[in-house]
Amino acid sequence: MEPAAAAGPLKPSHHEHHHAAAFHAAAAETPSATARASPCSSTLPATAASLVAVGLGGAALLVWWALAFHPANARLWMVPAGLVLLGTPILAWISLYASGPCGAAAVREAPARA
């Protein structure tokens, strides 16, 4: 067995450790790293899909009522339910746009004007 292999794995020197730490610290501050850690990037697709599904459900309920039950004025509960389901995504998008996690993060990260 060779003497170098018997000594075990080589540990990085103290000097190399500081360069690695500085590299990782600098990489963590890059815009691409902060963009990946954005709180809105992981939840936005799921939120958008659920809001679209709710809106389409409300529209489908209203169309079904209009085609099947409107001539007889039957099942009138479907109209307010469909309008609520259709209007909820609109209000949700307005609230997300106005005060969502993406808006707050963008305001915090914007440079201050002198």
Report what the structure shows:
The chain is mostly helical and 114 residues long. The protein has a domain of 72 residues. The chain is built from six helices and no strands. It is elongated. The model has no long low-confidence stretch (mean pLDDT 75). InterPro entries: ATP-synth_Z.
Summarize the structure.
With 114 residues, the chain is mainly α. The chain has 6 helices and no strands.
Q: Report the portion of residues in β strands.
A: under 5%
Q: Can you summarize the main beta sheet?
A: none
Structural class designation: mainly alpha
* Termini Cα gap: 68 Å
Count every beta strand, where a strand is a DSSP E run of 2 or more residues.
0
Question: What value does the average pLDDT take?
Answer: 75
- Using the CA coordinates, give the radius of gyration: 28 Å
Low-pLDDT runs of 5+ residues are: none
The topology string of helices and strands comes to: HHHHHH
